[in-house]
Amino acid sequence: VQVDTPSGGKHLYHRHDGPCEGNLKLARTEAGDVKIETRGQGGYALAPGCPPECHPARKPYRKTAGSFSDLPALTAQERAALLAMARAC
Predict the structure, then answer these.
(1) If you write DSSP's letter for every residue of 6-66 in order, what string do you get?
(2) What angle do CA 73, 75, 77 make, to 5 degrees?
């Protein structure tokens, strides 16, 4: 599932059977701003259906691909590879 955010970002959703760690900051810009991060135990993300007032730009989150009822399940190896690629950014 892909969700486009009001600020031009993307949320990509998946499932996995491994341990659910907390939020991870995986990549930053040269200025130190977070470029790629995850949401895990104790974290949250806004999603389609939340009121536009939830975001400072007052614009909606839009699902642009996939189905929440059919989230892909990643193996531990696939998830580790995905996180490694994100850290390389």
Answers:
(1) TTS-EEE--EESS-----EEEEE-TTS-EEEEE--TT-----TTS-GGGSTT----EEEES
(2) 145
| Tokens coding 72 | 């892909």
pLDDT higher than threshold 90 for residue 40 = no
Token code pair at residue 63: 């699902």
Q: What does the alpha-carbon distance between residue 4 and residue 66 come to, in Å, rounded to a whole number?
A: 12
- Side-chain-side CA neighbours of residue 64 (13 Å): 13
Q: What is the model's pTM?
A: 0.82
